[in-house]
């Protein structure tokens, strides 16, 4: 895309009726279950919470993820604070 500045990180989030979420700029899927996903993106860690969540499409080479289910929330974790990430990891792996 021509409007992207060289070296600038970019992420697109597209949601349809809270039932389909498409994301670009995804580096890794850290963890997931039917109620919560933790994704590492170019802009930091992103949590997605909802019900009956599952991966519809995954292509990490292109950085694309599509998630189906009922989405309650999307939240970025502060990339400069490791304590928040560790707290979330601790909750996920109890």
Radius of gyration, CA atoms, in whole angstroms: 13 Å
Tally of DSSP helical segments: 1
Q: How are the strands of the biggest sheet laid out side by side?
A: 1-2-6-5-4-3
**CATH architect. name:** Sandwich
Question: Using DSSP, what is the number of strands?
Answer: 6
Structural class: mainly beta
- CATH class group: Mainly Beta
**Distance between the amino and carboxyl termini:** 42 Å
Helix content: 10-25%
Order of helices and strands: EEEEEEH
Number of domains: 1
| Outline type | globular
Structural account:
This protein has one helix at 82-92, and strands at residues 13-16, 20-23, 26-32, 36-41, 44-59, 64-76. By secondary structure, it is mainly beta. The chain has a single domain (13-89), classed as Sandwich (Immunoglobulin-like). Strands 1-2-6-5-4-3 form a 6-stranded antiparallel sheet, with no helix packed on it. The longest helix is centred in the last third of the chain and has 11 residues, at 82-92.
Q: Nutshell version of this structure?
A:
With 94 residues, the protein is mainly beta. It has one helix and six strands, in the order ββββββα. A hairpin with a 3-residue loop joins strand 3 and strand 4.
């Amino acid at each position: 895309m021509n409007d992207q500045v060289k070296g600038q990180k970019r992420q697109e989030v597209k949601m349809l009726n809270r039932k389909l979420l498409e994301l670009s700029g995804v580096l890794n899927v850290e963890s997931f279950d039917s109620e919560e996903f933790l994704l590492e993106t170019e802009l930091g860690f992103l949590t997605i919470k909802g019900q009956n969540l599952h991966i519809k499409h995954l292509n990490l080479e292109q950085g694309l993820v599509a998630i189906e289910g009922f989405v309650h929330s999307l939240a970025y974790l502060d990339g400069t604070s490791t304590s928040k990430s560790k707290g979330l990891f601790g909750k996920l792996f109890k």
